[in-house]
Design goal:
α7 packs across α8. The protein has a 3-stranded parallel beta sheet with strand order 1-2-3. A 3-stranded antiparallel beta sheet has the order 4-7-10. The chain starts with a strand and ends with a helix. It is about 35% helix and about 15% strand. α1 links the parallel β1 and β2. It is of the alpha/beta class and about 280 residues long.
């Protein structure tokens, strides 16, 4: 099987050394196996994504010698794809609109003495899950903001969860366990998809069969495996690598300006020097 990997940054800031590490691992895996290395722009967030950051990503990868196989898929150009997925899930009663504000959710969690915490924080308490249809329509007609949430109970009932696994390199097969996440958000009124829905579909439609990404995203794989089962999508092999940190042990972020590839280039570093910083020759 030809290895197809990808690097899928969000153009919300400049690339840093952590991005280089992830992109380099994916690029090397593809090239050493004679496969393909795909670049994808996860540019759904209209408030934070900017053209100059996207341009900088192309420039940084080119400077580092991490050439990609065209074309570049930009999520903002494929919103109809995600809408179609949501419609399929809605037809099967697997999603529902949630009109709760963050304040209302926090207040409900505070009132509960046993509010569970999942991998992404406090679990949504299901306030709108059983809202009568007439009330939903009334609130739609009033043009209220809403999120579309996955009904986790119905979703698990719709698949054979006990047979759903994913393969993590170095760990073997892992049983899918999405229940701790609760009713996750798959889209919002102003944002037609979530990271979870878009990345799962895009990896499938682009034929990605080897996903290499940071350890911080490992828990999300349980959600992605569930969505693959619900949408009849293939399951790739995964490798979640360790995260690059600064001298104080803190995980690098886009706010760490000194660690951005743009800054390092301006300081006079050469591509091979930057690659060596992440132990990539």
């Amino acid at each position: 099987m030809v290895t197809i990997t990808r690097f899928a940054p969000s153009p919300t800031g400049f690339l840093h050394l952590g991005h280089v590490y992830s992109a380099s691992l994916a690029w090397r895996s593809a090239r050493e196996s004679g496969g393909r290395f795909i670049l994808r722009m996860e540019d759904i967030d209209k408030t934070r994504c900017r053209p100059e950051f996207e341009a900088a990503i192309y420039e940084d990868l080119t400077w580092l010698g991490l050439e990609w196989d065209p074309p570049v898929r930009r999520q903002s150009e494929h919103l109809d794809d995600y809408s179609a997925l949501l419609e399929k899930l809605s037809d099967r009663n697997l999603i529902y609109p949630c009109f709760c504000t963050r304040k209302e959710i926090a207040a409900e969690i505070a009132r509960s003495n046993s509010a569970p915490h999942g991998p992404e924080g406090p679990v949504y308490p299901g306030i709108c899950r059983d809202m009568p249809e007439a009330e939903r329509q009334r609130r739609f007609e009033q043009d209220e903001p809403y999120a579309l949430r996955l009904n986790m109970v119905n979703a698990i009932a719709a698949v054979k969860l006990e047979t759903m696994r994913f393969h993590e390199i170095g760990k073997g097969y892992i049983q899918c366990n999405p229940e701790p996440f609760g009713d996750i958000v798959l889209a919002r009124k102003e944002t037609p998809t979530s990271y979870h829905l878009a990345v799962t579909f895009d990896d499938a439609i682009q034929g990605v069969n080897h996903i290499i990404r940071g350890q911080d995203l490992f828990p999300s794989t349980h959600i992605h495996r569930l969505l693959q089962g619900l949408l009849d999508l293939p399951t790739p092999t995964y490798f979640h690598h360790g995260l690059i940190s600064d001298g104080k042990g803190r995980r690098l972020s886009k706010r760490d300006k000194d660690a951005t590839i743009k800054s390092l280039r301006e300081y006079g570093y050469q591509p091979e020097e930057v690659r060596k910083m992440v132990d990539y020759g």
